[in-house]
């Protein structure tokens, strides 16, 4: 299995089919203007050549004219790669998941939340299709001031993204009780023990165990980690499966919920005041513990987790509950105890 530098292909120029004619077809549909025509297109690759990416990414600046209006569109284009270890193994499934999310499910979730004054901040999807190559085109949020950030360093700044994920979970829970099936959002990579997992997890565990052997006073931890190394695929399969015995409830998880998949708005003092998440390639119908452990381990700084873990979980559950009530849900709403049970049962992620 190759290393990270061969994991995905990130060409400096877009494919030939991503041309004026293709963009005209896309924009005519999204803008509702049959006479729209593309005047010029500027393309910039996202990321560095050889960088580990699950998609080929480009930023486009499209100048256009039309019967209704003229203007400039700032777009981000995501294309399923054709080469590299990701493309050869998991990426087809990942991209299909994101196409399905943008093609149907996110629209439903955004609609019911917006109609009930619980808006979910999502980038506008301009195009999602498979011809001539699986492609998603989104509005570029950078011109509107949305920026990436490192780990969130205060409890108050963590609230906006906690609200977003709570609403996302609540909308999926509500829809699941109203004839929307999310069970197709499952992964079998852990059950099948996909070879890529050894590259992603196994080698790191092995290296960590070998390091433990050399650290004075840590010898007693070697055997427990060896057990983890032997069965981590089974543990992860049980967590990510929606049909694990004893599961209290499922929600649609973002599934890749970490700092690099977030964008934020900042106030004049540099504090985060709004947040949103991107990239839905790993969305899965399973325990809410998946996204919540991401929140605690990969989004907030450790000092925030240490001081406010319980506060964040309580804040999340309060917004989850309030959102379901705002949606008019009359069924059983999972309690804080239910959530704590899920977190405890899936503590391997913590």
Automatic annotation (TrEMBL):
This is CHK kinase-like domain-containing protein. InterPro entries: CHK_kinase-like (IPR015897), EcKL (IPR004119), Kinase-like_dom_sf (IPR011009). It comes from the Eukaryota. It holds the Pfam family EcKL. Residues 136-326 form the CHK kinase-like domain. SUPFAM superfamilies: Protein kinase-like (PK-like) (SSF56112).
């Amino acid at each position: 299995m190759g290393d990270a530098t061969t994991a995905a292909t990130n060409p400096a120029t877009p494919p030939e089919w991503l041309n004026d004619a293709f963009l005209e077809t896309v924009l005519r549909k999204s803008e509702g203007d049959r006479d729209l025509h593309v005047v010029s297109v500027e393309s910039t690759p996202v990321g560095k050549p050889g960088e580990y990416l699950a998609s080929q990414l480009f930023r486009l600046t499209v100048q256009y004219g039309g019967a209704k209006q003229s203007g400039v569109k700032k777009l981000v284009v995501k294309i399923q790669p054709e080469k590299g270890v990701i493309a050869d193994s998991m990426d087809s499934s990942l991209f299909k998941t994101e196409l399905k999310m943008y093609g149907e499910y996110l629209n439903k979730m955004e609609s019911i939340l917006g109609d009930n004054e619980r808006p979910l901040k999502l980038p506008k999807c301009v195009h999602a299709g498979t011809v001539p190559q699986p492609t998603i085109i989104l509005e570029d949020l950078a011109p509107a001031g949305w920026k990436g950030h490192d780990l969130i360093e205060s409890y108050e700044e963590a609230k906006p993204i906690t609200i977003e994920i709570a609403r996302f979970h609540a909308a999926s829970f509500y829809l699941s009780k109203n004839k929307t099936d999310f069970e197709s959002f499952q992964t079998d990579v852990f059950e099948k023990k996909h070879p890529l997992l050894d590259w992603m997890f196994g080698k790191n565990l092995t290296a960590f165990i070998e390091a433990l052997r050399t650290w004075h006073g840590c010898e007693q931890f070697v055997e427990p980690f060896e057990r983890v190394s032997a069965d981590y695929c089974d543990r992860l399969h049980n967590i990510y499966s929606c049909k694990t015995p004893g599961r209290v409830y499922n929600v649609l998880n973002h599934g890749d919920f970490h700092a690099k998949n977030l964008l934020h708005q900042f106030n004049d003092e540099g504090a985060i005041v709004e947040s949103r998440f991107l990239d839905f390639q790993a969305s899965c119908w399973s325990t809410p513990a998946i996204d919540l452990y991401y929140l605690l381990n990969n989004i907030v700084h450790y000092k925030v987790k240490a001081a406010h873990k319980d506060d964040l979980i309580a804040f999340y559950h309060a917004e989850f509950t309030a959102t379901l009530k705002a949606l008019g849900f009359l069924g059983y709403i999972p309690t804080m105890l239910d959530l704590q049970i899920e977190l405890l049962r899936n503590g391997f992620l913590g």
